Amino acid sequence: MNAMSPEVTADGRKIGPVLMEMKSITLRFGGVKAITDISFDIREGEIRAIIGPNGAGKSSMLNVISGFYVPQEGEVWFRGARRPQMKPYQVARQGIARTFQNIALFDGMSVLDNIMTGRLTLMRSGLLSQAIWWGSAEKEETAHREKVEKIIDFLEIQNIRKTPVGRLPYGLKKRVELARALAAEPKLLLLDEPMAGMNVEEKEDMCRFILDVNDEFGTTIALIEHDMGVVMDLSDRVVVMDYGKKIGDGTPDAVRRNPDVINAYLGVAHE
Amino acid sequence: MPDEILYAAEAGLNGLMAGVLYALVALGFVLIFKASGIFNYAQGVLALFAALTLVGFQNGQVPFAHLINAIFGTQIHEFGWHLPAVVAILLTGAVMVLLAILIERLILKHLVNQAPIILFMATIGLAYFLEGFGDIMWGADIKKLDVGLPQGISDTVESVTDSLFGYGFFIDRLDIVATVVAALLVLSLTLFSQFTKYGRALRAVADDHQAALSVGISLRFIWVMVWSIAGIVALVAGVMWGAKSGVQFSLSLIALKALPVLMLGGFTSIPGAIVGGLIIGMGEKLFEFFVGPMIGGATENWFAYVLALLFLVFRPQGLFGERIIERV
What we know:
The complex is a heterodimer of chains A (271) and B (328). By secondary structure, chain A is α/β, with parallel strands linked by helices. Chain A is 36% helix and 25% strand. Chain A has helices spanning 58-65, 88-93, 111-117, 127-131, 136-154, 170-183, 200-217, 228-234, 252-257, 259-266, and strands spanning 7-8, 14-15, 18-29, 32-43, 47-51, 73-78, 81-82, 96-98, 188-192, 220-225, 237-242, 245-250. Chain A has a 6-stranded mixed sheet with strand order 8-9-10-5-11-12, with helices on both faces. A 4-stranded antiparallel sheet of chain A has the order 4-3-6-7, covered by helices on one side. The longest helix of chain A is centred in the middle third of the chain and has 19 residues, at 136-154. The radius of gyration of chain A is 19 Å and the shape is globular. The two termini of chain A are 39 Å apart. Mean pLDDT of chain A is 87; it is low at 1-5. Helix content of chain B is 70%, strand content 0%. In chain B, helix 1 (3-36) crosses helix 11, helix 2 (43-58) runs parallel beside helix 5 and helix 2 crosses helix 10. Chain B is mainly alpha-helical. Chain B has a single domain (3-314), classed as ABC transporter involved in vitamin B12 uptake, BtuC (Orthogonal Bundle), CATH 1.10.3470. Chain B has helices at residues 3-36, 43-58, 65-72, 85-106, 116-138, 155-165, 173-195, 197-207, 209-214, 219-245, 254-265, 270-290, 292-295, 303-314.
């Protein structure tokens, strides 16, 4: 298979060239190796999952991609260029948005304001014209507000628009966090356990939203999940990690048959 | 109307106006505390430094004149010009922004992720440094600050109240100006924080650092912005207090009066700082008026602190502050 040529998946979505590539990433905390020599790529338009048991290093990997952790070894390539060491906010400005496993929203602000913060990097008017609310500032705010309203409609959270986030139930918070990430119109969307702690109904909703986002906006998505079932239905390709190492990489079907993966999830039969 | 009530009303009104000045200082504390969780001990000294710099610019003083003269044996003290108040205020504003950048570069940047107590200690250090630095830069003598603000009794208020109640209120015109300026300042700060992208970024940083980073907000930029705003609020406070009682070291101690204001209003609330300032200002004047004579007077010195103490016992988060609930 030629990795660079566009291809079409079974359900008719287009998968493009490589968007992001991780090359031999190693991450240590003191003497503990969280990630050992892992390489994989993420291609434009696909849903890429990273799975593995608890403590496998999945979240660490996501934190490396989003700039919260700096790996000791290895290179991160984004859009065909090697990425220099960056602060998380710089990574975000490059077009990589993320959600957090334990939800990081601005509790004191309304749903609308939370989602508007997602567009901060896209706003252009300067400090002075913002300060005196003059010229382009007002027009710009209106344009951004329109985009945000579309996302609110899309994720079906119209009725909680003005509610302070701190008052929302868990499942809705997760959805608002997704909305905030989407508001940045990211080239790559990172989701850290988007389904964690949800009941079956909420999980189904979230799955539908993730698929719709990928389908309608063509957003490339990399997500972490430890629920195998969910991931297999959702993703185009899967990376499997265990104890900081990569033990499998491929389509859901291929990964499911991989003996190492079966061992990691079900344990080895001792004879 | 009985005279007693009129006198009380006059005292209360004067207290309200004094309260505005307390609120101005408290406002600077709240801004920095909200955005970075730092209790900025140096806020009062910032006001002193701003006032010193303003007077220096206005009178065309040569900065570090004593130092330069001592080293080079020269005798320079003044450039020999006199800047208009507006120009001097703008220049001082620029200096406060520059100071904010330096504070971020030299102090805050190196203390990211440190415990609040460490940052608090750093601001104590900053306070002592700035105090000495201001002295070396502009000299330690008491200075008169005159930016052309009206002063003295307001004849309008006196004649209006006289025709209404048959007793003319004594209200200082400077206090009226201070009230108007403070109201404008609070209004513009509120609009800025509610309706601009920088205001939104500022509230985002105040709420959650990690989430703020993930949406592309640079913490360092926001900190510079917050300290600049706090510096400019300090400048306004410095101008008002300086015009009232001269620019001198004791100006930095007005920060102490801001503490009870913060305990009343809550450390995280801008309206709280205003209301807290007004309550303390009016409360101490009325208390002095009604209770003072019974217990020998001088209650203004301690009233604010006792009130704050009562609040600490019964409502530690203040009137408007967020209740801190730790999840266990």
